[in-house]
Write a structure and sequence with these properties.
Length: about 290
Amino acid sequence: MKTIAISSIFVFFAIVAGLVALTPAAFADHSEVTIVPAAGSGAPGCEETADGCYIPSTATVDVGGKVIFSNTDTAAHTFTAGTAAEGPSGEFDTSLVIAGSSYEWTAATVGEFPYYCMVHPWMEGLIVVQEVGAEEQDDDMMDDTMDDDHAGDASASGMLSDGTEVEIHTSAVAADERMEISVDFNESEHVNYDIMVTQNGEEVLNDIGAHSHDGKGVHETAALTSADPVDITITFQGYGIEDPKTGPIGEVVVFANIVPEFGTIAMMILAVAIISIVAVTAKSKVIPKF
Ligand SMILES: [Cu+2]
């Protein structure tokens, strides 16, 4: 059947593309980050720009690291944990920081912390607090000198049909340990996706409706019951903040058999092509009316 032949070719190329993309990347130090308001963000409009109202609009810092809110703008702003829609979450609040002043916050726990300006509610940003050295795993693999902290880290990448690379990094798979997974939709903004992780068929993480301003997200599983491999399924749910969202919505990237040994992923399967083609085929079937 023609559809099956086309699917096979697609899958073949998808796998080749995926394997080629398994190249290690270098990452920066995240012990300190400085966030500034965009110039003129006291008036609406910055939320429509690519940079956003806080720069960087998503800031990554190691746990124990320092976040410096530096008000380089001419208006007074707050950097308040929470969202304009739901109010303060209590994680941190600079209260009003006048022009030229700054405020420091030490990131004590791993997680994602949205924040906003209480005076100018269109201003929103995100702080991602990660495990120290969470992104240094690739360097270790290259040197082949895995220390205990990083032993078993894994990374792999796949691709959506629009060419967006989807990259994941994970901590080791170990009994009684939570596994941390960072997801990176390369050079993408406002990405919506679902992520599910299973171990021996049992669900250990199921985040529906994750949203990432800068295409990067961090997730943590429940404590694992064993060191058996896990499967990670990411379902792309579109780009954008408001509906309708764009992009190849519904595409699925499966990272199968994430194993603890050797710090790399042994096998990776991309289901993207199969799923999108099945969907198209089903839609184009026309049933004649009598
Ligand atoms: Cu403000």
